[in-house]
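Structure tokens please, single chain.
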Amino acid sequence: MTRLDSMQESSHTDDQVWHKSAPEGVRRAYGRGDQEQGWARWQEYLANRTSPVPPHELSACDGNALLWGTGESTVDANARRLLLTLGNGLHRQSPWSERAEAWIERTAAEPLDEARGLEAIAWARILPPASATLPSSLWWKLLDHLRGLAREACESPLEKRPLLQQLLGGELPLTLAYLFPEIAPCRKAAKPARKTLSAGMLELIDGEGLPNSRILDVFRPLLACWTRCRILGEHLEKGCSSATAGMQYEWAVRAAVRLARPDGSQALSEADGQTDDSDLLAAALACGGDDNDKAMASLALPGRAPLKGIDADRLPLPADNSSWAAVAVLQPGWGRHEPKLALSYEKPDFRMELSQQAELLLDGTWTPEVRLGGELLQPESTWQEMCWVSDKDVDYLELQIELSRGARIQRHIAMARKDRFLFLADAILDGPDESIEYRGRFSLAPDAGLAPAEETHEAFLLGRKAAALLLPLALPEWRTEHSPGRLASTGEAIEFQLSGQGGALFAPLFFDLKPRRMTQLATWRRLTVAADRQVVPPNVAAGYRVMVGKHQWLIYRSLAAPANRTLLGHNLSTELLIARFDRTGEVESLIEIEGE
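Here you go.
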């Protein structure tokens, strides 16, 4: 270890330790070996300097910024108490020397986690006033230890523990560089800190801000880290990151608004009781949000009034999808009470949550189970994006996963904007000509349940106040008719079971999300599909007509090679059609997918 690496060993007399901006009296005293006088002058200087301003005074938000975006999974009760205590300053009557020594020993001996990373930043923030409380040897030992943690983290791989690496390898050295520009090694730490933070912003989120699926659980804490660094960077000559990474941060702020649940917590993550990160989001919007972001936040986040003069038609589309991140959000508008479907499809058992009227109705996974000839098929790939469309009519996402025995599932997800319905369907394709059984399992939110009708196969998906009408289109409307499957609740999930023959099957669910239609008559019919004047079997193509009140829709899916077929007098050669009937009975396409 060189003298520059360890300020403790150098006794702070080496010219390499002090930058020219350090007080001359401090440099001279340490230069002649008078550590007692040097420490006294350093204490006096730290007590009286007016710049840099303490980090907690840089943000207009109340509360402890180090707790932004954290829950019990990130910060345990002991760490939370320490962060709050350090945020209030060191008091002489408390045994801070013993606590600092114990913290140094523990973090030197034990593997570090994210809570220890936040504690390290808290100790760094308290170092200037701590010079009046801690003995000089311990003060320098603590600073030296923090620098060592930062150096090690800068060299650690980002993908292993991204939040810990960004805290210790980015925010910690940037904090030391901000607080101690008079100390040369601290001042120089800003460069690797910027490199680390830039890499995090560029590698963990896509080109338009959506976080990679694997970091969804720590996206808010990461945004908090980057926001605190952004605040510090406004007072550093070269900021906290590269310009390109800075643009990524601004996109991430918008993504945070897009991914917010109605209660303010983040979609697709554990809420941990931290349902309102209002301070974090307010600070992030102040640092990286533009006028559109602030307008969208006023509509989407709790505790805010919509900004005056908002033209919703001029705002960016509320939906987004990233095949790189394997994350999608489908929603017709930015308002908190609008329907929102959030998806994370990195793994075969992907996560999904549906909110309606500001309540979660579905929350967990959408799990498919397919059997051919009684044999359970296994996934042989991850979900791959096949198609993404987001326009004035619909948000549509199509995914595909390969299964054993040459079969595959194509998953269709459509959110109709004006029509206010959600369409979810799995199409099982290319299986051998055998019996086929499908079971789709949709996890319910804790406060939601399924209420099936007594005489028909329809059901209501119910929350505390919110509701959605659920129509299992592949089942007959009336329970008295022969049915190829069932729709039921297991208490924790909805299960949709369907069976067929011929190695292909279509399992569609229609969710009516417009509250005013809930009390109106709903009906649906499976339609006859023909080709060359012959009725085609359900393993070749399927068509449905749905009516709720006066509103009607047409749905068609080809399960074999696309061909010219007829449905309700319409000639179709497409793979998928979701359409509405207008008032004159004409068919208006919402989404149409051509065959391969």
